[in-house]
Specification:
By secondary structure, this protein is an alpha/beta fold. It contains eight helices and six strands, in the order αααααββαββααββ.
């Protein structure tokens, strides 16, 4: 299947020669020295060719992203095939869209870490999220898996599947890699939150429960690996509720920071209402 692109991609040398052809069309006398790379014209056109090369690549990347975002069902499945991504049984459009984007990123600017993430996300729907990182100069690649089941702890069976899939990329496979993998389960980190919200006198009494429900619902939908629970996120989410005049975090003042392999859980959310 051909490459998915809205503008045909060409290598920089081809673009350079095309630009030089255009330049010679405007200045025929330049034909005699066009083969020299040392001329100011050649250097300028080389820079222009590289600029065009990257502009085309960026345009195609953005176009693919929009195409994926606005596709669903069978059309999305067809787009996935361009990148060897096959929808898992029961996989919804949002998850599959994210996986296809990882496949694209892993083959371009995102590099091998995004490619590994796409690989792990494609193993099973039991994988809710995965984060992959290196520490300093250590060549070991750390892989933390957040399960979609229960509290998020990945089972030994799921971790075994991940290790096996990554091991398939080692010596003897079609793609030979020297990377070493350290596969682990994600860690749930719990913390209590106290929010102070200021409202006018005519706001219904149930505003407190409304705030709790919305904050918890939105966080549960986004409490992925390595995402810190920041005061800004809590206050912004609270202020999206109609009727609030102001909101601030009482505790913890700095929010709850997450390491790459940690997923934050709000163990208790207290909302204090101040009427003004």
């Amino acid at each position: 299947m051909g490459k998915l692109e809205i503008i045909p991609e060409k290598d920089p040398e081809t673009l350079f020669q095309e630009i030089m052809d255009d330049y010679v069309g405007f200045r025929p006398e330049f034909e005699e020295v066009r083969h020299l790379d040392s001329t100011p014209e050649a250097k300028a056109n080389q820079a222009l060719a590289m600029r065009e090369y990257h502009d085309i690549a960026r345009t195609n990347t953005v176009w693919r992203s929009y195409l994926i975002d606005y596709s669903n069902g069978a059309p999305l499945d067809a787009l996935g095939k361009f990148y060897d991504a096959v929808r898992l049984p029961g996989e919804d459009d949002d998850r599959f869209q994210a996986r296809v984007k990882l496949e694209i990123s892993g083959r371009s600017g995102g590099g091998p870490l995004d490619a590994y993430k796409a690989l792990v996300m494609g193993i099973s729907l039991d994988v809710r999220d995965v984060v992959i990182w290196r520490e300093g100069r250590d060549p070991t690649i750390n892989v933390a898996v957040l399960s979609a089941i229960g509290s998020g702890d990945a089972s030994p069976e799921l971790l075994g599947q991940v290790r096996s899939k990554l091991d398939d990329l080692g010596p003897g496979s079609e793609t030979v890699l020297s990377d070493r993998f350290n596969v682990m389960s994600a860690v749930r980190k719990s913390g209590a939150v106290h929010l102070l919200a200021r409202v006018s006198q005519n706001v219904p009494a149930e505003i407190s429960e409304t705030l709790r429900a919305i904050i918890l619902e939105k966080w549960v939908a986004s409490d992925l690996l390595g995402k810190s629970l920041t005061p800004g996120w809590i206050v912004a989410t609270a202020m999206s509720v109609a009727g609030l005049m102001d909101a601030r975090l009482v505790t913890p003042l700095d929010g709850i920071e997450a390491s790459p392999n940690e997923a934050i859980e709000i163990s208790d959310l207290k909302v204090t209402i101040e009427r003004v």
